[in-house]
Amino acid sequence: MKPSDGTGEVAGGCDQAAAPAAPVLPGCHPDPSVCRVGDDHYLITSTFEYFPGIPVFHSRDLVHWRPIGHVLDRPAQVDLGGVASSEGIFAATIRHHDGLFWVITTLVGGTGRNGTFVVTATDPAGPWSDPVWLDDAPGIDPSLFFDDDGRAWCTGTRLAEPGEWDGQTDVWLREFDPVAVALTGPEHLLWRGALHGAVWAEGPHLYKVDGRYYLLAAEGGTEHRHAVSVARADHVTGPWTGNPANPVFTHRHLGRDFPVVGVGHADLVHTAAGEWWAVLLGSRPYGGYHPNLGRETFLVPVTWEDGWPLFAPGVGTTLGPFAPPAVAGPPAEPYREPARDDFDGPALRPSWNQVRTGPPFWSLTARPGHLRLPLGAASLADTATPCFLGRRQQHQRVSVSALFDVAPRSPGEWAGLAVRQSEADHLVLAVAGDGRGGRRVLAAVREHGVQRVVAEAPLPAGGPVVLRIHAEGQRLGLRYAPVDGPEPVETELAAVDGGFLSSPRAGGFLGVWFGPYATAHEAASAGVADVDWFDYRPLTP
Predict the structure, then answer these.
(1) Quick one: which of 353, 334, 309 has its CA closest to 12?
(2) Which has fewest Cβ within 10 Å: 36, 112, 226, 239?
């Protein structure tokens, strides 16, 4: 994978010549689900508390993915108010049937309506419909299956009641009426996972191959012991028999020092060229067992042997090497996002996310050519919608910088760059008031809910400031440069070990987001911060 080709653009996936050994969607893109329509493939991933929700990607070759929209792009579709970090939109499934795209997912937590819902679209780029809620679909990780006999089915996962052990789950099945968009008929208990004592048999997907039904499920918890297991049946309602070789794919036996850990939550796709492939999640720790980039989307080949799917045959890991997928139609150009965003367009790029739903708090027109953020009352520590726009960290070595023009009036008014893992764990490099009518630059760490300022320095009273977070692995160099001449002089204010931002230390399921942030820390403020540009630039070796 080439994170940068020297043109100032950021690669969106692997090089086809290298085959898909690296993630095809780097950064926090967990729980991938894929479907094919002709020569085209469409993929979605989980987004939890971030909005817009459920990004949609398009690919011809399964390796290079281009963002084309979001399933949830209107606050009227879902209410993420009060959703805590790692709650919100859980694993979704995308399917295509009779000219219509279907996505089913679950909203967990928050103060608004939650549970399982279905949305549809004729164009995967949108617009997508308002949700139809399935109040009788318990648990999480729902999936739709359209059989070749005209019937449709819905599966999902819920905690077993009573369970034989903590974390035991039921994979259930009910018939689905696509016209009424409703579940119908009796419930069928399909499976409780492959291994006795294994937790969270989840993420179930159904397929029909050569007249037999196959149930693919994740198992072991979406962390180091994650795995893929499979069962099959002659009838969709069962009885189901697990593969004696289960789990059919995992890295848990390879140890925590292996380059990719926690693989699982797979979805299968049969290409127009006749090949089978699986998308699945995995994480890449660095600087210790710290997968700051979160759970990423990987791709492995699948063959069939003795009536069972065989993942990464002859290799058994995501690292390959694999021959690239055969392409039935003309390949699409690799997607490359420009490294710099000058905020000159009419709308934000699709890589930007806010935390939770709510009215837009930013403006691209108040000062043309700038992103304007108000110094809002909410902070990153609140279960609210802070004035933060973030994009996923997708590289272990990266320089993230932005040019801020802000005149804070009090010590609680901050504007700068943030690295967000959760409400309890994040990092801020900001321009703030000094309490005497001047300005200072500060670095603040919030770890396990406790915030501390680790360094600060005075700034000139006025003028723009370039803020930079220079990530060399887990070393996060926090730098600043007042723009008071043609060549700003950059100073490193502090260096922080970023390992605390990884989910094994912070908890939860997410990677981190970088982006501009402004807050008055619960106080009312008329202040604003203008961001002239934002730069995300991978560092070449």
Answers:
(1) 334
(2) 239
Neighbours of 244 (CB within 10 A): 8
- What is the token pair recorded at 323? 């021959």
Whether 202 is catalytic? yes
CA distance 257 to 285: 8
DSSP 120: E
Residue 108 host element (H or E): strand 100-108
pLDDT at site 9? 53
Q: How far is CA 424 from CA 180, 201, 411, 473, 488, in A?
A: 42, 29, 21, 22, 34
What is the pLDDT, as a whole number, of residue 486? Answer: 72
| Residue listed under structure tokens 């693919």 | 216
Instruction: Give the whole-angstrom CA distance, residue 107 versus residue 87.
Output: 8
Per-residue pLDDT at 478: 98
pTM over 0.70: yes
The pLDDT of residue 11 is 46
pLDDT at 488: 81
Structure tokens at 180: 């009424």
- If residue 505 lies in a helix (H) or strand (E), which one and from where to where? helix 503-506
- Would you state the pLDDT for residue 327? 83
Task: Check 49, 87, 202, 267 and give the catalytic one.
Answer: 202
* pLDDT computed for residue 4 by the predictor: 32
Count CB atoms within 10 A of the CB of residue 136: 12
Residue of 31, 49, 296, 405 marked active site: 31
- Assess whether 31 carries a catalytic annotation: yes
* Alpha-carbon gap, residue 285 to 280, rounded angstroms: 17
Beta bridge partners of 233: 213
- Which residue, among 459, 466, 452, 450, has the nearest Cα to 533 in the 3D structure? 466
User: Residue 164: how many CA atoms within 13 Å on its side-chain side?
Assistant: 8
Is residue 178 classed exposed, middle or buried when 0-12, 13-18 and 19+ CB atoms within 10 A define those classes?
middle
Question: How many other C-beta atoms can be found within 10 angstroms of the C-beta atom of residue 207?
Answer: 18
Instruction: Note the pLDDT of residue 540.
Output: 85
